């Protein structure tokens, strides 16, 4: 319909162009009146075609995406959302955004991490292990109710079980299982995953394709705090992050550990001082953060 409409317009303007030339030759002639009539007729046909095209479009086109109702909380939706780049400029200034992420929970530290995050008006993305969900179900509900994102981090966190086969089957089965468990707790389905031990080198191109085809998005990180390896040394965690962050968008890897709870207030303070705003993962504004820069994820 659209093509037809375009070609009608082009045809109409060709006639109009030709008529101007001819009317100069036969000034005040009877033919000019006839030509004027023809032009009006063509314009009329063009107009009614465009009207009809618009009418047909409104009859058959699906409703715009914004009309579809979405769960209010966090903007989390069931279906794959529109993927767009995170806006990096606001009023001409480059926005610096820090995504705080906590892996391997929920745990006995989840509540303390949330208390500190709330003090700094910050939200985090939690990548949770399925086997821990049974022990701390209330922590999962709380973190979601307070505006944090429930990311997925496999059922077992076992390198052997997830990667030894080289294929994606066991990996995907674990992530589908943990996804169902989180869904049963909170009532909607999260799609963002983090591969235990990171996606590289054990997850190749075909493997990544399988993850994307299963409807997941996958985040690695930009700055690793190495907090898990620094028990009793919160200052070392703080200085690692201090040295590591410099990008406009940072995804900071931390874990649910005692030393992380101890370091967190200082970490949030230093990020603020460096001009970072804290953001929680938003599926409607997905940002690609994986080691392979794979845009499918
Ligand atoms: Zn982990």
From TrEMBL:
It comes from the Bacteria. Coiled coil: none annotated. The chain crosses the membrane at residues 31-56. Residues 96-279 form the NodB homology domain. It holds the Pfam family Polysacc_deac_1. PROSITE patterns: NODB (PS51677). Keywords: Membrane, Transmembrane, Transmembrane helix. The keyword Transmembrane applies. This is Polysaccharide deacetylase. It comes from Paenibacillus silvae.
């Amino acid at each position: 319909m659209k093509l037809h409409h375009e070609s009608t317009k082009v045809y109409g303007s060709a006639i109009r162009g030709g008529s101007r030339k001819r009317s100069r030759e036969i000034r005040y002639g009877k033919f000019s009146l006839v030509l004027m009539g023809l032009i009006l007729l063509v314009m009329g046909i063009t107009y009614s075609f465009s009207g009809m095209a618009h009418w047909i479009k409104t009859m058959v086109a699906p409703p715009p995406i914004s009309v579809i109702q979405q769960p209010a909380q966090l903007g989390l939706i069931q279906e794959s959302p529109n993927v767009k780049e995170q806006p990096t400029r606001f009023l001409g200034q480059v926005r610096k955004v820090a995504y705080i992420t906590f892996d391997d929970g929920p745990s006995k530290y989840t509540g303390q991490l949330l208390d500190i995050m709330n003090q700094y008006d910050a939200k985090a993305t939690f990548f949770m292990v399925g086997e821990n969900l049974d022990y701390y179900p209330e922590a999962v509900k709380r973190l979601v109710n307070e505006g944090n994102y429930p990311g997925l981090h496999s059922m077992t966190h076992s390198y052997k079980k997830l990667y030894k086969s080289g294929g994606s089957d066991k990996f995907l089965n674990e992530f589908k299982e943990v996804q169902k468990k989180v869904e049963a707790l909170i009532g909607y389905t999260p799609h963002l995953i983090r591969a235990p031990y990171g996606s590289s080198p054990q997850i190749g191109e075909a493997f990544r394709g399988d993850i994307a085809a299963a409807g997941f998005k996958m985040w690695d990180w930009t700055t690793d705090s190495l907090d898990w390896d620094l028990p009793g040394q919160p200052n070392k965690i703080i200085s690692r992050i201090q040295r590591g962050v410099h990008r406009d968008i940072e995804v900071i890897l931390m874990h649910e550990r005692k030393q992380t709870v101890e370091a967190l207030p200082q970490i949030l303070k230093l990020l603020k001082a460096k001009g970072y705003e804290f953001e929680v993962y938003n599926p409607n504004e997905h940002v690609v953060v994986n080691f392979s820069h794979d845009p499918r994820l």
